[in-house]
Amino acid sequence: MSKLHYVHGSENHFFLLDVDELKDSLDDIQLSYLAQKLSHSDVLPYSDGLLVVDHSDHAECIGQMKVFNSDGSVASMCGNGLRCVGRYLAEKFNQTDFKVQTTQADLNVHVFDDIAKGVSWIGVQIAPVKFAPAALPYTNLDFDQIINEEIPEFSDHLKFTSMAVPNPHLISFVEDDNDLEEPLFNLGTYLNQPNEYYPDGVNVNFAKILGKNKIFVRTFERGVGFTNACGTGMSATSMAFAMNYPESVDVNEPIDVFNPGGKVQTRVHIELDNRWIQLMGNATFVGYIEADEVDLLSQPIQNNLVESGEEADYLAFIDTIKQ
Ligand SMILES: N[C@@H](CCC[C@H](N)C(=O)O)C(=O)O
User: In which pathway does it act (predicted)?
Assistant: First the structure.
């Protein structure tokens, strides 16, 4: 039997599959198909994608993470996902500080003490951070980098910052709550269909400044749509917050980042040309589903979710946090 763990970071839900535990390996085409099958099932709980844990041949890493969005596309990074994979590997190998191989970088993971009863708290490195048009990529926009720029093609009143961490993000700080709804949906939808600006699509994040070191972020995710939270989106938005509003950010202190699924904290590191973010938040294992390995691709997967009880603890924790 194979185990599909049902996990989330800030209610950004995934199935997690350790392919090292399978008798027969699955290739990326099969994994992409499985991500779509799991996300589009009528009986399984909601998921935004599939996290694949594999072994790594990088000497410094204890494992590898691959991410498939719910539409089957591959994501170069996933912050909420890396926290969940980090917790999984920490428990599998009984370690608290280690590196995980991701598509473009080997990233640090640190396991903190639980932040509340039953709420695991994991810190992950988000890097590299790049602004060059080719890194996102973006085209047909007349900027060497997009940092707090007006882009009339996208909005008649908002300014934008765009960076790869290394998956692509477009960020805007809004004042009006209404911008978090239809304008975000419309721009996210437009830039994630074939378009002349972001040929590979882009994750679109709109944020509100709530106070010093305090923001709210809502994301329209590439390959998914509106999500409860996007870890790389909150990390990229924290970097943009520190760059565009230095008077509102003390980089020596964590930034509280609220999202529709809860709250994380970030630390922004701006060291000459080396920029990175530490993303700290929950990694909740809601439960697991068991399926025959041979049925993963060929048969409907039954919802035999065995719950851990951690979701109740997470919801109790969320009740205690205030904006
Ligand atoms: N939810 C993620 C990001 C997942 C990938 C994204 N949809 C993409 O295609 O870049 C996160 O927590 O960072």
Answer: Amino-acid biosynthesis; L-lysine biosynthesis via DAP pathway; DL-2,6-diaminopimelate from LL-2,6-diaminopimelate: step 1/1
Taking the CA atoms of 100, 102, 105 and 111 in sequence, report the sign of the dihedral they define: negative
* In contact, 144 and 133? CB cutoff 8 Å: yes
The answer to whether the CB of 281 falls within 8 A of the CB of 235 is no
Whether 272 has a pLDDT exceeding 80, the answer reads no
Residue 222 near ligand 1, beta carbon < 6 Å: yes
**Residue reference for tokens 């990694």:** 283
For the ranges 68-72, 117-121, 268-272, which has the lowest average pLDDT? 268-272
Q: Is 94 annotated as a binding residue?
A: no
Q: What is the pLDDT of residues 284-298, one digit of tens each?
A: 999 999 999 988 998
Amino acid letter at 161? T
Rounded Cα gap, residues 45 and 34, in angstroms: 15
Low-confidence winner among 100-104, 155-159, 164-168, 319-323 (lowest mean pLDDT): 319-323
Gap from CA of 158 to ligand 1 centroid (Å): 23
Q: Ligand 1 in contact with 204 (CB < 6 A)?
A: no
Contacts of residue 75, Cβ cutoff 8 Å, sequence gap at least 6 = 49, 67, 68, 69, 167, 222, 223
Distance between CA atoms of residues 303 and 298, nearest Å: 16
Cis bond before residue 45 (omega within 30° of 0): no
Main-chain phi, psi angles of 118, to 5 degrees: 75, 10
| Structural contact between residues 91 and 98, judged by C-beta atoms closer than 8 angstroms | no
Among 227, 233, 223, 202, which Cα is nearest to 68's? Answer: 223
**Residue 69 Cβ contacting ligand 1 at under 6 Å:** yes
